[in-house]
Design brief:
Blueprint lengths: L12 H4 L4 H24 L3 H8 L3 H8 L8 H10 L10
């Protein structure tokens, strides 16, 4: 087995994987929002039924969210879900 050289991360795993910078930025935002929503639902102890009601989603869609199926949620939809929980989203530019 060959030793692979270590390469310092750019701070965006999607850019490191070779995605174009614009796509990598959107993917990183989607991943961060999904992670935040999942952590919030877990921390509040909401059941899937309670989360479905609060987020105005079906239980199946809540299941997709909790399971981390990020490809099923657009950036816009994840921002909307945060707003439905009365949470704000802040963008930071580097």
């Amino acid at each position: 087995m060959m030793d692979e050289p270590m390469v310092e991360s750019s701070g965006n795993v999607f850019a490191d994987l070779g995605f174009a910078s614009d796509e990598a930025a959107v993917l990183q935002m989607r991943a961060a929002l999904m992670s935040d929503l999942r952590e919030y639902l877990s921390a509040t102890g909401m059941t899937h039924d309670q989360a479905a009601s609060a987020l105005r989603l079906t239980r199946t869609r809540v299941g997709d969210l909790v399971a981390g199926r990020w490809e099923k949620f657009s950036l816009e939809s994840l921002i909307s879900l945060e707003a439905r929980l009365s949470r704000s989203v802040t963008l930071q530019f580097a």
